[in-house]
Design brief:
Distance between the termini: 45 Å
Strand order of the largest sheet: 4-5-15-10-11-14
CATH class of one domain: Alpha Beta
Shape: globular
CATH topology of one domain: Rossmann fold
Number of helices: 22
CATH architecture of one domain: 3-Layer(aba) Sandwich
Length: 489
Amino acid sequence: MTLFYKSTRDSENIVSASQAILQGLAVDGGLYVPTEIPETDLDFKHLANQSYQEIAALIMQLFLPDFTQEELHECIDKAYDQKFDDQEITPLVKVGDQYYLELFHGPTLAFKDIALSILPHLMKKAAQKNNMDKEIVILTATSGDTGKSAMEGFADVKNTRIIVFYPENGVSPIQKKQMITQKGENTFVAAIEGNFDDAQRKVKELFNDENLRSKMAENNKVFSSANSINIGRLVPQIVYYVYAYTRLVKSGKIESGEEVNFSVPTGNFGDILAGFYAKKIGLPIRRLICASNQNNVLTDFFQTGNYDRNRPFYVTSSPSMDILVSSNLERLLFYLTKEDTVQTKQLMDDLNKKGNYKITAGMKSGLSDFFADFASEKETAQTIHEVYEKGNYVIDPHTAVATCVANKYEEKMLPTVILSTASPYKFPQAVLQAISKEGEKAAINKLETFAEVSVPAAIKELENAETKHNDKITAEEMMHYVEKELNLK
C-alpha cells in the first residue's frame, strides 16, 4: 500500500506525508487526511514490552511512509529525551477505578508537547526531502497550550520563524506568562482582542490569502502550521493511545484484545481524532468519550447532528477548550460523508457563512464510536475536589472535565483511560479554588502540598522570567502584524 494525503475539500489535491506536513493546511482550505487507513496487525503482548519511543516508530512509520525508519528514529530520539521529566513520556496512573494518562511531563506541562517536540524535526526532514530552501513561517492561533509548546519546539530552529496569536483574556495567567516570556530570536507573540475562534478564523484567512502567499514567495518564505490541522501534529498523538493500551496489558489490568474507553477533554477535536485513527488501525476502543466544557457545541452536535456556533461564548477555567469552531471535526465529517469532498466543502461553507450545518440521519449513524457530554464550571470544580478527596490525586480543570463526563457515561463496565492533558500547576487558582480560596503565588505553593509533587521547574522559572512580547492587536490587524514582523515588501 502506498499512503498519500488528500484534501477533505478536493479529491484531486493529493500530496505525500512530508508535503502535507510542510503545507499544514491544504491550499483549497481543506485538511489533509490519509488516502487509506494503514493496515497493520498490532501485537499488544509484544508491544507491552516496548518503550514509548519504539511504539512511536511503529505507529508513525504507518502514517508517514515517505520518511525512512532511520529518519523517524532520529526525529523520535531528539523529541523524546531528557526534556520529559518521566522516562515513560506518558505514564499511566491508576486512581480508584479509573486510569489517568499523564500527558503533561514535557517542557511546557501540556499534552501539546508530545507532538510539538517532534514536529520541528519532522518539518526539517520534510524540507530536506522536498528540496525546500525557503524559510518556513509557522503561523498559529492558540487557546492556551499550543502557542507555548510550539514556540518551545521551534525556538531558534534554523530557517524557521513562528508567529503565535492568543486571545488576550482567554488564557490562564500561567499560560500567558509562558508565552510572553518565550525566548528565541525567531519567536513572535501577539494578544488579540476577541476569542480563540476569532484568531483561528483569521489565521486560516491568512493561509488562503493569495496576495499574502505571493508576497511570501517573493521573499522566499512559506507558511506552515503547528496547530492540529497539520497532520504532523496529529500523527504523533495516535501513539499515546496505543502506548496507554499496552501499559494496561503489561500490568495485567486487561487481556490483549479487550476493549477500553478513552475520555478526552475536547476543544479543537484534534486529540480525540487521534484516538479515532488509533481505533481505525485496530486499537480495541469501545467508545471515545468527547468531553466538553460549558462551550458545549460538540456535545450538541453528537447528540443532535446539528453543529451551531451561533451561541454564547464562555470563558471558563479550562481555557484550552473555550472553542466554538472545532477545526478537526472537518476530518470526521469527511469520513461521515463517505469521503465526499463536495459535501464536506458544502458543510464547511455553511458553517463559515451561516454559522451552522446539520448532517443527515445516515451520517449521524456513523457517530457510534463516540459518546459526548459536557461539564459545567460547578461540576468541574466538584470533580477536582472529589478526585483529590477520594484518591489523593490532583488534576487540572481540563482533566476534570474529562473525568466528569466519563462518570456520566452509562456503560462503565470497561476500563476507562482519561487523558490528563495539563499539569494542575498550569491552573493553580482554579485547582485550589476547588478546595480553598488562594491567590496565584499562594496557590502554587499550597498546591505543592496537596499534590505531593514538587513545583515543576518550568513554573519556578516564570517567577523571574523577562517579558519579551507585549504586542496587543485586533483580529483585523493580524495581516499587518505578519507583514511587519516578516518584513514583507
